[in-house]
Every structure is written in structure tokens, then in C-alpha cells.
Amino acid sequence: MVQRKRKKIMVEKVFNKLMVNRIDKSYLKISWQIDDKEEVSIYWNNKPIINGNEKFLINIKENEVILREPCKNERFYFILKCNGYKDDIVSEVRLPLEKLVNFRDLGGIKSKDGKKVKWGVFFRSEELKDLGKNDIEYIESLGLKTILDYRSRIGATLKKDTSIKGAKYISVPAFSIGKELESLGEGLEENFDILALLKSPKVIKAIGNPVTFASEMYKRMIFNNKAYKELMMLIQNTGNLPIDQHCTQGKDRTGVGVAILLLALGVDEELVVKDYLASNKYRKIVNDEIKQSIEKSKFSKEEVGMLDIVMKVREEYIRSSIKAMKEKYGSINMYLEKEYGLTEEKLQKLKNEYLY
């Protein structure tokens, strides 16, 4: 019997800790880690794809480089190539907008199987009201097909999103505050907007500990939620993408929607939590300004302290959501199937489509 020679399977290495950080209005730092001292070639494209149309920027043997942005007021992506390594794509996670501080691309987040979420497909943000010309131009360069607004009917009507060319606008409130708080009146929004709590002394008294209250709200949001059902339906049709999902500040209702999406794509819970908590980093300057303004007002120290809690996201909030999924259904996958009809087959289809 003749023994056949086995073909050697060449396994491509991958870039590790690949990221882009903005230094100022014009310059960005790209950094990465590789096992070898091979030369890395960097290109750029205004689409998150490697199609032969990418434009060459530089060859370098270091693990980081500072480059001037290749174009202004338009989304762009860097492509890194290196002998023996899988070509990779990277861009800024937070979009460099003038008014919005928490508009982010979910691209590059790793799944459990080592793949990454595709760039330029899933975005998250705060409300898109009163945007200037430059921000509109930049956002329109994303090619958005859908904007999913989680705010209440009242919030979405009073603070209308700026119209984005080519994007279908869908409004589905993500949370009902419940009859026990609606009965308190005093203009509390019908949907979860945690900053609205400070408007009513009665509400503050009724909810008690704000951390406990918020955790309970997070548990409620993940079940029988029309907004998140809409999200999971939309992403099953590539014609609806790219999509931006948002609420008022882009942290609570949006944070839960993004968590569900990432879990469906097979992202590890720890990375889901990490993305969720990043809102604190991106909103820090805005939160500090709000706090300083409130401290000069007539609010009591207790109310200012509550504001400091509710302006930020906390790990226990999103952990309470994930824990509730498992407690009711036994596993994340069973939660996704029972709440959104996402069978193993459908989940695999999503991963095949949106991971690279």
C-alpha cells in the first residue's frame, strides 16, 4: 500500500491588539502586536473591505505608527498586510464627530471562535438631534440603511433625529417604566430614561436605591421587548444594514440592545461587558460637565449623588440582564431562540455573514 504524503496546511497568524487611537484632529496612531519582526504594509480604503482598491500608505517594521488621516469628514478604514499573517482591517471605534461623543462602530470585537465582528455594519450612538453639516456628512458616509430609535414616543417626537440620507428611520420604544411609576405623574417619560428620575421627588422616593432599581429595569428590558425583537429581525436581512441603534445617551437601552446582538454573534460575555462599560469612558467629559452644572443648582447632595450613579453605566446592570437570561431559559442560546426565534442554524448564519 502506497502511503500518501499529507499536504501541509499553512495556518496564517493574526494581528493581535490591533487598534486605532486618535491623537488630534488630524493624526491617528495605529498599533498592533505580531510574533515576528516582519515588515507590515498599511493601506486605507473608504469601505471596510479588502478589494484591491485600497491605497498604499507605508511599510513599517515597528509595532505602531502615527499617520495623518487619509481623508477628511468621511469614514475610512486601515488595512494591514504582513507576510504569513491574515490581512486585517481596523478603524476608530468612536467616530470623530463634533457633537456626538458615544457614536461607535462594533467592528473588531472578537467572538469566541477567534473571528471578529465586521467593521462598518453595526453602529451604536446617542440621539441624533440637531446635528451640524459636518456630522451629517460624516454619518452619511457610513451608508446607513436603518436607524433604530429606542427612545419613548415623547422623546423621539420632541427631540427628532436629524434626517440621514439613505437611512430608514424606525422608532420602537425599548422600555415601559411600569404602572407603579407612571401613576406618580410629574412628566416622567413612559420609557426608561434614567436621568428623568431626578425630575420627580416622588419618583426618587418610590424607587429607593437607584442601583437596585436600574438592575431591575435591566432585567425587565430583555424579555418580550418589541424593540429588541425588531433589531434581531432587521439584522437577519443584510439589506437593512448598516444599522445604527440608539437611545438618548446611547448607554442603557442601546447598551442592552448591543449586548443581545453581540451575544448572538458568539462574543464572550466579558467582551460584551467591556463594550457596554466603554460608555463611561466616551461620555466622561459630557458627564463631568453635567455634574458641575447640577452641583451649582438647587439639587440636594443626595440628588447630586444619585445623578453621579445614574449618569454612568455599571457592571451590575448588564450582568443582571445576562443572569436573568440564563435563569429563565438555562442558556444564552436558548434565550435567543425563545425570545427571537434564533435557532442554532440561524445563529450560525448570522456568524457566517457578520464575522470575518
From TrEMBL:
From the Swiss-Prot or TrEMBL record, give the protein name. Answer: Protein-tyrosine-phosphatase
Similarity comment? Belongs to the protein-tyrosine phosphatase family.
Q: Which InterPro entries match?
A: Prot-tyrosine_phosphatase-like (IPR029021), Tyr/Ser_Pase_IphP-type (IPR026893)
Q: What is a GO molecular function of this protein?
A: phosphoprotein phosphatase activity
| Family annotation (Pfam families) | Y_phosphatase3
Top-level taxon of origin = Bacteria
Provide the organism lineage as a comma list.
Answer: Bacteria, Bacillati, Bacillota, Clostridia, Eubacteriales
